[in-house]
Amino acid sequence: MRMTRGSTMAKGSEEFPVLAGTGGVALGEARTNHAGRKAILLVRGEDDTLEFATLVATMGITIVETLHQSGPIDPRGYFGKGRLQDLADELTSRTVSSHPWQQVDLILMHTNASPRQLVGVSEAVGVEVWDRVRLLLSLFTSHASSLEARTQVRIARMQSDRTVLRELANQETTGERAGYGGAGSTALQAIIDNMNRELLHLRKRQKKHAIAQSERRKQRSRGGAMTVGLAGYTNAGKSSLFLSLSGKEVLVKDKLFSTLETTIGRMEASPRVLLADTIGFIDHLPSSTLDAFRATLAEALESDLLLILADVSDHPEELERKLFTSRNEVFTRFYGEEIDEEFPWQSVDSSVVHHVLTVLTKCDQATDEQKEEGIATVAALGLPEPILISSHSGEGMQKLKDTILLHLFGPPRDLLLLPVPAEGGRAVEGLVSDVYDAGLVAKRTNHDDGIVELRVWIHEHALARLLSHSRHRIEVK
Ligand SMILES: Nc1nc2c(ncn2[C@@H]2O[C@H](COP(=O)(O)OP(=O)(O)OP(=O)(O)O)[C@@H](O)[C@H]2O)c(=O)[nH]1
Ligand SMILES: [Mg+2]
Predict the structure, then answer these.
(1) 224-409 classified as CATH 3.20.20.70
(2) For labeling, which of 241, 280, 340, 370 is most exposed (least CB within 10 Å)?
């Protein structure tokens, strides 16, 4: 939706004004489907554009041409004024249908642009302009399916739009922007005020949701359940692992940011172990944007055990970058730990690291060399020694399950359940069912003398409770 300045804000309707030349700041519900659009990408220097291009492709947008400019970045327009003018001229002169830019209606900037740059480029070229943050926000918007995800995406979007509108208001006031002067800045201020009100409302809604979530988390843990959180760069294979461990359907796609909210499921055959799949990380997401997802992340990161996942079939440099980002998001941003770059392992509080397992995924499609490099990278970053798995082939999955249980419960215990004594008492099967309720039974053996032996993963508190209620009929072997 693109409207010109001067249209009025229609209360409660779909009709919201969009300010022409504002880097595509669209108020109201944002467009969610961008498939089929054509774009031109602006790149400074020798930046690697692979990830950016993947994000764009994920949205079904085609990059028709990539324009490069070397030299220092222009603080007003990212590209220099002359190049932007050339771009604008080319866009206006593409009247012949054979022109490759014929259907281009989007300019992409390969950077997290300042509000000033967004406004500058947008004014110069006269079509919609996205920087990397705007691209991510549009991607989030099109993938957000639940109310919770939509709320957090909308908050992130509005925060970002507000900085652009403030820049515009500022340019109007200082006279830097021609045309509307005081009246323009008053109109902008009215829109910003509206946004502030809506943000307040959305944040309240989000807070309520977070409180309810945290209450549910406490209830689960009071009920004796343990939670395993899945974290990692986007597309690392979190939802696939979740699916494979829990059997619960979640969206698995070879797309970035398929998952935007947290789903809780139970580990198969281990009903006391809960799994939390969540949104992935990405480099250089502004903290204000990431903060909008904090409540969702908390659901997975505030767990009894956190798995940090990375795709070992990635190029080694990519793997390192993504693991580095994941580690920093978890430790620095979320747990608030200071990391000493030289000795990351030692510098993070050991009680925190104790709750972390590193998992290298997709090992079915990695070479031996990649696996070796992956293991070395994990060590260099000071993360716990990794477990290599494949959710597709099943490789490493049993080891992962056992390691999860070992971390949560300690080694399995062998319990002997004694038969009913002469003076009477509960049937052995009653005791068996008590053990099943308290822990995870891995193996059962019925002895000839009526004793039932159970190998069980059990939390020490639960074991103590079980023993004290057993009238000496349960013994630890
Ligand atoms: N070959 C192979 N591919 C895998 C494996 N695990 C996941 N994939 C693929 O990797 C892609 C991403 O998987 P997801 O499970 O959606 O990844 P995610 O971490 O949940 O991604 P986001 O939710 O987008 O952050 C999908 O195409 C999966 O099929 C694996 O073990 N082997
Ligand atoms: Mg996912």
Answers:
(1) no
(2) 340
